[in-house]
Design a protein that fits this description.
mainly beta, Porin, 9 strands, single chain, 14% helix, 2 helices, 170 residues, 61% strand
Length: 170
């Protein structure tokens, strides 16, 4: 899985570099469009997005691993005036994340070893901040983000999610 992450990151960097090397950058119209792709980072999985307005879009992620399933949904606000480019725009937003994981440990009772576990469910408030690149003359969208997460339950732990999203505009 580590090689997959490195390949996705290398592809993203190459495409972003070639797009930024163009003198005149213009992005395709993304208002009212859906995008579907993959997300690689803290949690790998499926990434979807919907652009309702020029300066606002929604994204969701679903990831599944051997011991955890996670789902998140964010409302994001593009800031193209910062880079003076529609093709490359920073964004920030707010969202919710939900995860369910199975935590297991081995308990030894006499000569018998037993595997004891429990389901752990957690809801988080997410504050994603990132950079969205819509590659000119292609339906490709690349997003890089960090998202501090704060648990909504007192027993949860705060964390930092990172992601590289590669999506195809539909």
């Amino acid at each position: 899985m580590k090689i997959f992450k490195e390949l996705v990151l290398a592809l993203g960097v190459m495409v972003a570099g070639s797009a930024m090397a163009q003198e005149e950058v213009s992005a395709p119209e993304v208002k009212g469009q859906y995008a579907v792709g993959i997300s690689s980072g803290t949690k790998d999985g499926l990434s979807v997005a919907y652009s309702k307005e020029d300066d606002k879009f929604y994204q969701g992620k679903l990831s599944m691993s051997e011991d955890e399933t996670a789902l998140s949904a964010d409302m994001l606000f593009l800031q193209p005036e910062v880079t003076k480019s529609v093709a490359m725009a920073p964004y920030f937003g707010i969202g919710l994340g939900f995860s369910e994981s199975y935590k297991a440990e081995t308990v030894k009772v006499g000569d018998i070893e037993m595997r004891v576990g429990k389901d752990v469910r957690q809801a988080n408030l997410r504050v994603p901040v990132g950079l969205l690149l819509t590659v000119p003359s292609t339906p490709l969208q690349i997003g890089m983000e960090v998202a501090p997460t704060v648990p909504l339950e007192p027993q949860g732990k705060a964390s930092m999610d990172t992601a590289l999203n590669l999506r195809m505009l539909l």
